[in-house]
Amino acid sequence: MSRRVLMGNEAIGRAIVECGCAVATAYPGTPASEIQEAVMAFARETGSPIHAEWSVNEKVAYEVALAASYTGKRAAVSMKQVGLNAAADPFMRSAYLGVKGGFLVVSADDPGPHSSQTEQDSRFFAMFAKVPVLDPSSPREAKAMVRLAFALSEEYEIPVVLRPTTRICHARQAVTLEAPDDAARAARFDKDPQRWAATPRAVLTLHRGLTEKLLRLAADARLAPIRTPGDGTFRRTCLVGSGVAFAHAQDVLDELGLVGKLDLYQVTAPFPLAAGFGRCLTADYDRVLVIEETYPVIELQLQDRSVEGRQSRLVPSEGELTPELLRGILATFLGLPPAATPARPPQPGPARRSARAAATARHSLPSARRSREGYSPATSAATRWGESGRSGHLPLHGGRHQPGGRLLSRLRPGRGRLSHHRGHHRRLHVFPLRHPGPGERRGAAGALHPRHPGQRHHGHDRSPAHSGPGCRRGTGAPVPLRDVVRGAGRVSCARWIPTTWPPSPRP
What we know:
Elements: E1 2-7, H1 8-18, E2 23-26, H2 33-46, E3 51-54, H3 58-70, E4 75-80, H4 83-86, H5 88-97, E5 103-108, H6 122-129, E6 133-134, H7 139-156, E7 160-162, H8 166-169, E8 172-177, H9 193-196, H10 200-218, E9 226-228, E10 237-241, H11 243-255, E11 263-266, H12 277-284, E12 287-291, H13 297-302, H14 323-334, H15 355-363, H16 459-462
Parallel strand pairs: 2-3, 2-4, 4-5, 5-7, 6-7, 10-11, 10-12
Antiparallel strand pairs: 1-8, 9-11
């Protein structure tokens, strides 16, 4: 085994290969596009015999992978959240019919949204379809959940949804690489017209079987919420969270000096919610705050009007739960006066770092301070999953925050690197979460960021003078390549980086 820093999507793709998946299909769409690319790359790297294809749409991708699962092969399909709308027909039907081989459905959500028509919640869609869903809070956890999803799918003969969000998909973290499992399973399809070609009379029987599966899943200890106990400072008060919002909430509590002061519950499986969890909260706590993106999936299943969250309007009903927003929510919930809110003191940084360490720090995952090193549902205490000294939030910065960014006016043919001249599909860049020390300013690549990266876009990112990376001033129009030499715009975060001049067409 070895360790490597991977993007969240790459970690998911690597896990699909490691789990012995035989068929992987997808339809591209941000923030899920890199999953299939990673599957193909790691399949070549490890020599794994995987049939991987880009399908003509999400419905076809879903049906191709589902057919492989009917024969006992492990299969996976990936898409963005609005793509699940296109695959709704086979998605709903497959919950009733079930599967044979493990079947993983990766539906990447885009709270905000950053690059989608809607910010719909795939967890809510899974609850509507009666399909179990897992919600990771880090790339490392997403990788571990892929293996858990395949195991649950084969044990209960049901599709399992993995729902990462943009902040998980495009963050980076060190993960452990394992040797791929043997994917050499004999394909066999057992004819069963009452199941595979179910008529309305047989569908009722299949529906009863689906309900029984969900009840057994709710009682499965592997899907139980993970409790991190507090010291009793806030008596009979707890926070329940899911996904990256839970990781952000832990970061905020750390900044406020409130880590270990109240009980925390991480819900790794928002649906079906663990049996008895709602009764436990009602009996043990007087005040409960639920943090989740973007629909109140956990709140609706708790069926308790005293629970605070999106339905009580303490948490906004729309938009991404950023650390800044969560700071105000937690201060209100815990009754902290703004003037008395404790703040974490600045942390002095190293005087000098190697180029490799600086590059790793720029691309390592921002840390939710209390997340786990490895996924273990039996573990109640949590540890850091970020590397020491490389923790931070997940801001979506524009061009002025790109390490080593240069004005386009300074680029000339044959000199420098042109970094993504269009105003969309921006990557997330992570900087160390601390203020610069006295006299410290960002200089070369890897040096300190001049401002606190946990805040929202700075004012100059939204000003008319800077509308986004590679955009004309005051507009959202992309800058043509012919204007690059003239100095229009600014170099910003990179996805496609031509290394020759003029740049060749994008493949």
